[in-house]
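Table S7 (text form). Paired inputs.
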Amino acid sequence: MTRSGCRGCREDQPDFAIAMAFQPIVDADTGLPFAFEALVRGRNGEGAAQILAQVTPDNRYAFDQQCRTAAIEGAVKAGILSTDARLSINFLPNAVYSPVACIQATLAAARTHAFPTDRLIFEFTEIEEMADTDHVRTIVDTYRAMGFATALDDFGAGHAGLGLLANFQTDYLKLDMDLIRGIDVSVPRRLIVEGMVRIATSLGMQVIAEGIETAEEYAVLRNLGIRYIQGYLLARPGFRTLPQIIVPATTLAA
């Protein structure tokens, strides 16, 4: 991987005209938000796909940096400091050229908006192919040493799968919605998720299930011991706002 992006922090870069939507990751034990994930949107609410289509290898450093600062600014304006929730920010591992250097704008944004950095979680997705897993491990280790948490997003839907976990472990493992969909009627999905919970727990990782849309899916996940839940069943993303969480009464005792 060519790490020419350090050049990008010294040059004029495009303005991606982004804003953020926020979706809660719910602590099912309490019904309260454990974290809010920042999801990129256009400034007028345009979908993520329209924004991501503008990202190229030449400008992904600028995009990654703008997403980080927009997430912090947007979350604070939306009221996250009145909660105990963390802020989960998606980042592109291939846009991080030096973990310490590339975090400086994020730290500056946190200082400007008085956001505690120990409430930051950085998510990266295994959908983006990681050409240099040693570099990703360095990012994870550096962030952990700086007091940030990390999460592997979309697990089960990308390139590396279990092989990635053999190289390094994040604090959180987010199971992709394709593993969750219909888990209440699919024995193979249930067995796979049950196995992943055991593996993650043994590796010191906490599991987050994403993409939950039905009370039946929720009930199975709770029975499998998964505490952190994200999906339309509980709350859709709120554009520039922190949405209200609704936990159906039938699931509270699951």
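Next pair, protein 2 of 2.
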Amino acid sequence: MKREIVITADGSKTIHLPELEEQYHSKHGAINEAKHVFIKSGLHHVLDKNNPNIIHILEIGLGTGLNAFITFLEAEQNNLSVDYVGVEAYPVSIEEAMLMKYPEALLVKNRESDFERMHQSMWEQPAKINSNFNLTKRKQFFVDIIDQNQYDLIYFDAFGARVQPELWTSEIFKKMYDALRIKGVLVTYAAKGSVRRAMLEVGFKVERLPGPPGKREMLRATKNDINDC
């Protein structure tokens, strides 16, 4: 499938798929979306609520590695240990990833070697990117995920329901629910009613939050403690 590199509204780049009329990140700003949805509404929320020394994160749709790289920078800044698992069915090439120039866009050009190391790490094998950040990349279809009670936070960054509705079903969100620890959190840029209903169906407590630039709302879902049900 043809891929084109395009510049989003905040000056950062993403990959556009003309055949699907879909892109890896919001055209309204790739970095702005990542920081708002996954860092502010996800990572910072979990840190403020639980104050952990180590956090286990699962990303659904590793893509260009933008969310992982920003999380890496956050871990270092906050002296937080992160165990990060990124699942991707169709990996982006190292060459494509480096063309994104995310270290430069994030004003940390001196960390380009870390971003490159993330993409050079072997699939299916844990890699220590630095003392704060361990990364495991898994080439896997989301329907095949069977993790149980492992994660504090899920970044759900799959392609939109318009092009891949099968990734936004109660079947997939049941897998996400099972993969989270009690009171674990899932965040996504999506806010469709069908997505919210699928989350509620499998047991999540769901909040509508203000969305990133270009979107009115997004969703945050929390795995209920048995005493909350």
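The first helix runs from residue 30 to 50.
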